[in-house]
Amino acid sequence: MMGKTKRDFGPVRAAALVGVVLAGGEGRRMGPGAPKPARLLGDRPMVAHVVERLRPQVMDLVVVANDPLPELATLGVPVIADPPELQRAAEREGRRLGPLAGILAGMDWSRAHHPHAGWILTAPADLPFLPLDLTVHLCGLMHVPEPDVLMVRHRRRREHSLGIWSVKLAPDLRRAVLEEGMRRVEAFAERYRLAELSWPGDAAPFLNVNTPAELGEASRRLAAVRHSRDK
Fold first, then answer.
1. Residue 121 β-bridge partners
2. Predicted TM-score (pTM) of this structure
3. Residue 127 belongs to what domain range?
4. CA 230: distance to chain centroid?
């Protein structure tokens, strides 16, 4: 009997990680229209593709979004906003605080709902082709001594919002964002034990959809994948 081809395998769950989808970006480069996570890719919002691919790989999953998008209610997972004190800081500054606020929201949610889970896996809502074996590769690098943060790198690009974070960093992260004005994910991560997973293979699973042109590319890729499955 012939073995299954790679595309026949479904998602693989490797460890007790809590998944956090970061859907709070403003998406200004996408232009006028629906917020980026709600933009249709195929027949579903883009964030739904991320949830579908990540949910089976983690023990639980939450979406962080500050906009009350009706599309989020159909995902079948909890949807939360940034912590209240960070929302107040954003109002004072007149701008959103960026991915670090969403990462902190995920840490807080994980600590409240899964106090024995020491790690969260964050993924932005604009990576609709996330690998189905992402956690297998990431957890293969979680060895002793364990890093505090583990990020994914493909070719020369480091995905700052895609990686594993120790929830023990939550107090430091809250202080950095509120008291120090920290906004850059990489700047915060580099304070701690930071490791990288150099993704084996091409960068196709990490297509960032930030512009209408990239959304068009993603739509063509999705149509090609569905066509190959129907053969």
1. 19, 164
2. 0.88
3. 6-230
4. 29
